[in-house]
Amino acid sequence: MKFLIKAVSRTNEEREFWYDNETSGLFNANGSYLNLEYVEKEYAPHPVINKNQPGTKTKDIAKLKIQLGLSCNYECSYCSQRFVARADETNKNDADLFLSKLPSWFNGGSDGLGTGVVIEFWGGEPFVYWKTLKPLAEELRKKYPNALFTLVTNGSMLSIEKNDWLLNLGFNIGLSHDGPGQHVRGPDPFDDPEKFAAILDLWHKLGPLNRMSFNSMVTKTNSSRLAISEWFQNKLGFEVPIGEGGLIDPYDDGGATNSFSDPADHVTYRKNSFFEIQTGKLTNFNVINNKLNDFIKSILTKRPSSAVGQKCGMDRSDNIAVDLKGNVLTCQNESPVEVSFNGESHLIGSVDDFDNIKLKSSTHWSFRDNCAKCPVLQLCKGSCMFLHGPLWELGCDNSYSDNIPYFMSAIELLTGYIPYYIEGALPDSRKDIVGLVNGIPTKKSTVIPIVPV
């Protein structure tokens, strides 16, 4: 679908463009392609999955997500796992059986030693399962010495011993912490001297190796990436890489409470987010460079929307989430006894019967009414693939406001003009991106101008 983009330069010159989300084509007002350095690239169509067109999995796995269990020592108010039905807990015996069967369904990468493969260890909080995690990871490292190991933790259960173990086994670590918005996650481990010391010890071991980030989510009450970055800088005394960094997807009432609901709040967030990106002070947020580079690439290579999969990548056949009992799941945040929003089970099969793994709990963006009519499709990639109903609609609003500042920034980088209004099959609240045309009110007196001075 084509959209007419009204844009303004930093010297207040007006210009119009056309943008086509089906080809990621950016055109002059007369319909001709912009004079950019295009790169010819062939794209394969991405599988289109829903309950009537199930997805499958391959044994040529690129990303293996191992779900240890959903228990956690924190209670994050927007956690995607908060109300997920719990299955029976797994233990070391399950891990032993899992390891014995693994070679029958996992080929171990291009060389059988894990080359090109990412193995992720997930909770809940993974260190709640330390007695299972430790022998499991050690054995997997022996089998697949070249695999990339990753783990996300809240940092509250670290110790010098565990830090050395993570270092020696070659882990990359994401430490979940929302900076000034940490209160919605639970206790702040930085306030506990012993826990803070363990976090710093891990950073000093992994940080210089580029194997650690602090992962922060953006919420209604924690909406400034600049404030998050400055919080870590002030607390630690140095800049750290920040992972995640996007507006949350709402999975329940807690997630809804932490999401924007008022159009004025959305406009304020978009304006402030764009301004913060433009300051150049957020280079430590991986999401910013990744989003800008990917969207610019989509334009320069004319990436068709048919090649765009889901945001999380779990609709791909070579990405798989399993528990230690061999159950194959929609993703690592679900359990085999939970039902998806579309009525299908999140238990999509078993590693003992690969041919019958059927991903029915996911809905490809092309089956969503909003996605095909959205200018940020190539950035958003359908939001969460299994949300439905009011929560998906709320998440869609979040994702639009989160991605449109990248859309604005990328087009300015390519053309020198900043989009401020979009004409197309959009709700009025989305057309006027930052409230310049219809004067949508903003609630915060600290709102900055669209064009930094």
Give a written overview of the molecule.
With 453 residues, the protein is an alpha/beta fold. The protein has a domain of 249 residues: Aldolase class I (TIM Barrel). 30% of the residues lie in helices and 16% in strands. It has 11 helices and 13 strands. Strands 9-8-7-6-5-4-10-11-12 form a 9-stranded mixed beta sheet. Helix 3 runs parallel beside helix 4. The radius of gyration is 22 Å and the shape is globular. About 2% of the residues have low confidence.
Task: From the structure above, extract its key features.
453 residues, TIM Barrel, globular
Question: How is this structure best summarized?
Answer:
This protein is an alpha/beta fold and 453 residues long. 30% of the residues lie in helices and 16% in strands.
Low-confidence stretches: 440-448
Percent of residues in helices comes to 25-40%
Largest sheet: 9 strands, mixed
Distance between the termini: 34 Å
CATH class of one domain: Alpha Beta
CATH superfamily membership of one domain: Aldolase class I
What topology, given as strand order, has the largest sheet? 9-8-7-6-5-4-10-11-12
Q: Could you give the count of β-strands? A: 13
Overall pLDDT level = 93
Q: Helical segment tally?
A: 11
CATH architecture of one domain: Alpha-Beta Barrel
- Net shape: globular
Output the structural class. Answer: alpha/beta
Q: Gyration radius, to the nearest Å?
A: 22 Å
Q: Kindly report the CATH topology of one domain.
A: TIM Barrel
Q: Hey, roughly how much beta strand do the residues contain?
A: 15-25%
Secondary-structure element string: EEEEHEHEHEHEHEHHHEEEHHEH
